[in-house]
Design brief:
This protein is an alpha/beta fold. It has one domain (2-102): Response regulator (Rossmann fold). It has five helices and five strands; from the N terminus they run βαβαβαβαβα. It has a five-stranded parallel sheet with strand order 2-1-3-4-5, sandwiched between helices. Helix 4 (85-93) links the parallel strand 4 (76-80) and strand 5. The longest helix is centred in the C-terminal third of the chain and has 12 residues, at 106-117. The model has no long low-confidence stretch (mean pLDDT 94).
């Protein structure tokens, strides 16, 4: 299994990486902005993407749109510090399968990733 972690914060990228070790991802790649996330998705074809919303060059919601246009079956978990309910609703409307509010807890991340891994 493969995971793509898209977040402009190195600390958040590493925290997500540490907290998904239980899932047995064989390869994990990183993107620090939405444009790079889209490029990585195209070449890497991960099983799951975690996507921040507020990033430079291309925001996460735009990247979600672009990825899902290319692969409607993509499994995307939005992980964001934007706390308003409308942001979560918008992410789900655009096709993300889940939404986590930062700061994330190991338990909430495990639960969300497990949900995405279910067939």
């Amino acid at each position: 299994m493969k995971l793509l972690i898209a977040d402009d914060s190195l600390i958040v990228r590493r925290a997500i990486e540490r907290n998904v070790a239980w899932a047995g991802f064989g390869e994990i790649r990183f993107a620090a902005n939405g444009r790079r996330a889209l490029e990585e998705y195209r070449t890497f074809r991960p099983d799951i993407v975690t996507m921040d919303i507020t990033m430079p060059e291309m925001d996460g919601l735009t990247a979600v749109d672009a990825i899902l246009r290319e692969d409607p079956a993509a499994r995307i978990l939005v992980v964001s510090a934007l706390a308003d309910k409308s942001t979560a609703v918008e992410a789900i409307k655009r096709g993300a399968q889940g939404f986590l509010l930062k700061p994330i807890t190991p338990e909430s991340l495990r639960e969300a990733v497990a949900d995405l891994l279910e067939p």
